[in-house]
Each structure stands twice: as C-alpha cells, then as structure tokens.
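Please predict the structure of the following assembly.
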Amino acid sequence: MAQTVLQSKSINKYFKDPVTVQVLKDISFSINQGEFVSVVGKSGCGKSTLLYILSTMDTDYEGDLIIDGEIMRGKNEGQLARIRNEKIGFVFQFHYLLNEFTVLKNVMLPGLKLQKHTEAEVEHRAMERLKSLGMETLALKKANQLSGGEKQRVAIARALINDPIIIMGDEPTGNLDKKNSDLVFDIFKRLCEEYRQTLLIVTHDPSFAESTQRIIEMGDGRIINQ
Amino acid sequence: MNYKLIADIAKSLLLARWRQSMVAAIGVTFSITMFIALLGFMNGLNDLLDGLVLNRTPHVRLFNEIKPNPNQPVNLSGDFKNGYNFIRSVKSSGGRVEIYNSAAIIKAVKADPRVRGIAPKITAPVLYNAGTIDITGVVSGIDVLAESDLFFFADYVRAGNPLDLRNVSNSIILGKGVAEKLLAEIGDVVQVTTSKGDRLPLKMVGIFQSGIADFDKVQSFASIATTQKLLGEPNSYITDIQIKLKDLELAPAVAKEYAKLFQADAEDIQTANSQFETGSFVRTLISYAVGITLLVVAGFGIYNILNMMIYEKMDTIAILKATGFSGRDVRKIFLGIALTIGLLGGLLGLLFGFLLSLLIDQVPFNTAALPTITTYPVNYNPKFYIIGIAFSLITTYLAGFFPARKASNIDPVIIIRGK
C-alpha cells in the first residue's frame, strides 16, 4: 500500500464577492506517493481554485486538507509558508522566475530559506538539478535572458530543490509551444518514473492529461470522474 | 531567521532599481545634510551669542550688596519678640562693599574641588577727565592672568598687550567707546578721578572691545594694585570674587552655600542671565523643527518609492511567498530596503553636512559687535550627528513600515491567477 501524500476531505469553497457562488462542491480525493495525477476540466470549473487550496496558499475554504499526515486547518501563515517551502514544489503557467537573480540563485532561494543545508550544499544541489534538466550551462545567466521553455525548466529545478513530497503545476505547459511542452512533460514523466516523484498537474491540454497515470476530471465545481 | 538570505534578497531588489533607490537615498542625504549644517550653524551662533555674555559672567559672584541690615535692633530686643515689627525709614548700613577677610575666602574657595578657578575683582566708579569734560565710567581692577584664563579677557583686547596691565605700573586699558570719547591712544596718559575726589594719571596700554557698545563706553580695566592705589585702599581690598565652576549647573547650589559660609552676597549665573538660556532654547527648538520637517519630507519620498517598488515587484513577492517565504520574511525584506536607504543616505548626509559646516566655517563674518569673530561660527557637536543618523533611521523605518506591511499582506493567489 503506497503512502498517502495529500488528501482532500469534502472541500467546499465559496466566492463571496459580489454574490456568494459555490465554486468547489464537496471535493474529496487522495493522492498516493509516486502518482502522476492530472486535473482536467473546462475553464472556470474550479480546478485552479482547488490547486491553490491544495497548495495552502488559499486558506478560505471549508473541509479538511491533509498533507503528509498533517491537517492544514488552524496553522498560521508562517507555518503554512514553511510547509510550502519544505513539502511542495510549484510550477506555474507563467514561469515566474525572479529577474533580479541568476538562474542558479533562483533555484537556490527556496533551499536557502529552508536552511536544512549549508549554502555550499544548496548550491551543489541546485547545480545537480539543473544538470539533470540539461540547464547547467545557463546557471549563471540572469533569469530574464532565458527563453520561455528554459524558464519553465528552471522553475521545475527550483520546485525540486527541497525534495518536496509533491510537485504541483498550474498549466505548466499552457504557455509553451509543442516542442517545449513535450520537453516539460518528459521531465515530469521522468521524475515520476525514475525518482517516484508525486505530481499533481492542472491542465486543459487533453494530450498531456492522457499521458498521465491518473486523471481527475472536474466539472462545475465537482469531481466528475477520478 | 535567515537574515543573510533576507539581506541578500533586499540587496538584489535594491540594486535592480538602483536609480530609484538612489533618488530616495539622495532625499535622505539632503535632509540630513541640511539638518547637520543648520544645527551646527544655529548652535554655533547660539554659543557665540551666549559666549558674549556668559563667557564673561562668573558662575558665582561673591560681593557685598549695599542694603539695610536684616537684623534691626528691635528684633533683637526680648520685649518685642512676639510681635511683628514694622520699621519705617530704615537706611542701608555701612556702605562697605569690601569683602571681609577676602584672602581667607579666596584660599578656601580655591580648595573646593568643584571650582575651576577664581578671579578677584575691584569695581571702582570713576570719572575720566578730558579737559573740562568729565565722563562717568567704571574701572575694574582685575588679575589679568586669571581673568584671561576664566573669562577670555585677552580675546577682547583689540589693541595693545593685556599683560602690560600687570607689567606696567599705573596702567589702564580703556573701553573702545571711552577711548574714542577721550581721543586717547596707546601710550597716552589718562586722568581718572574717583568718587572720593582723588585724581590719578594712568597710562593707557590697550583698547578693550566687548561687542556691547554701551558697556565699552564706560568700562576700563586696571590691575588690582593700581585700582587699590586709585581708591586709596590697602592691598587686601577686594569687592568681588568671581568664581568659575567646573559644572555650570551647580552654580545656584554653590552660590547659596557660599553666601551662608562667607556671610557675603552670592549671585549665580542662572539668576543673573536667565534670558540667554531662553533665547538659546528657542533657537535650538526652531532648528530641530526645520531639520525634522526636512526628514519627514524625505520620509514621504521613501514611502512613495517603496510603494512603487512593491507594485512593480508584485510577481516577485508572490513567487517568494509561493515558494515558502512567509509574510514576515517579505516584510523584513522591504524594511531592510528602507533601512538601507536610510542608513546609506543618512551616513552620506552626515558627511556632506560636515563638509557644508566646514564651508560655512570659512565664510567671512565681520561685525563690530563681535571683535573676536572673523568667520561664521559653527558647532561640531557629535550629538547632532548622532541625532541625525538616528532620525534618518527612524523616519525611513516608519516610511518603510506601511509599504512593507502591504507587501507582506499580498495574496500570492490573486497575483498568480491574475495573469
């Protein structure tokens, strides 16, 4: 029996402005260690909203979220930040690297924040991850000198720096061309197969979703199919 | 907390927008520069104006006031002890202005550890004779060395050598106004008549200018021995003992103590010159008010720039939060930016303020009222520099506080989804 990494117990979410609308209705599912899960659904069905709740950044919901056996409710902002730092890796649609820093430093920042390793170790780990993604030659470039596909791969390296228990992606290939999307997908697949990395990716690219191990389909705030 | 990382991120954000940061820092630099220069200059002037009177005023002055005896005979009589006695037409007794047993008092005062030094003095009202005209005036008999040491007497002697008062017998230094009225020059002999009618020719050896014209029109100086001779008094005759203390603030207490101990009148500098402290206080207050206003304006500049920076760096803040930086970390980063601007701007301000003070110190400033001054006075008290840097840090902290709080409250979800 594989270990449960993330569990959602009847999560409800309302948007209260301007009128109260229920965007998530009784969402319950769990993700096991090593699974590569994609969440699909039409635009506006609440899949991104769900992801931000699962990522602990959105705390305004009903129900329970359990990450790595810990209930997230009742934790303060600093504790949640610590959990994001340590246990969750993020890849966004718009690469979101910090342009003030080099590629290497971008990858290192969450590691430096965690303070589990010394700066030299963090740097070494960052280089290792960049190497495994074939990005080591760009390590000392500024983040804004990279192409979109390169930025997304750096973002993946950054997501991996603290060995998170789960990587979450919000349309990570949504803004990339076919070639780069395939590249990013291959990376995810390799992470899953070689390192048994758990992945939860929101996408509306059907071909992307079909290639994952498990598809959670959402519609109108509910899980239709999982 | 990982301050090194926070500082590193703050530095990168600061340098990424170094032009803006520089403008903010220049605002602080300018205010601190003006603050330092203004306070230095104002306090320099204060010191000068206070010095005009306070430098020449003893902290405690022992003398005998001419006044009625407080112990009238009726009070000593046992018959009237229980009543309250009204006495009319009481006259001042004695008229003895000499300090009793002055040699012993001087010795005792000199032994007091609170006392920096003493200068005995004789005040003699005289008439200067110029042909048929008599000009009223005052000759002060002084000990030139003590007077120069304690009250900067030599600084105010504009012509001639003050030491000649001591070295040349029967010599006098005339006030500038007196010398002009008498048309006397150095080396001339001046006739002086005392209130008792004795007349003595004195040789003029210098001109004294205090900067207070009315004072210079009546005042002259002679040595103690010469004045005693002029008055026909023995060489123990002293009318005033001027005492300078190590700590000015002790003056009222010491005055009270000496008055009782030596059975003489004692006046302290605070009582004699209270209006000067008021003036200095108001001037200092005004300079602080102006300086702080400048700093507040600079603070608004920093506030604006940080606010703008936060709008520009929304993405950065969101991503920092998404990857595990807490609101506290973000707040520290922006406060760090604000304080760096404040510290660098402030330190540069101290430097430029010092340079500007040096410049003001070189500007010629000649006025008849202030004979010893040739350039504008500046006070380089390190206190102003400490206050300056402290204020620059406090203002920038406050200016950074609200933008930083705003940054820490940014919801990363809104930013990331908002794209």
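Chain B has two domains: 3-54+276-418, 60-65+96-270. Residues 60-65+96-270 of chain B form one domain.
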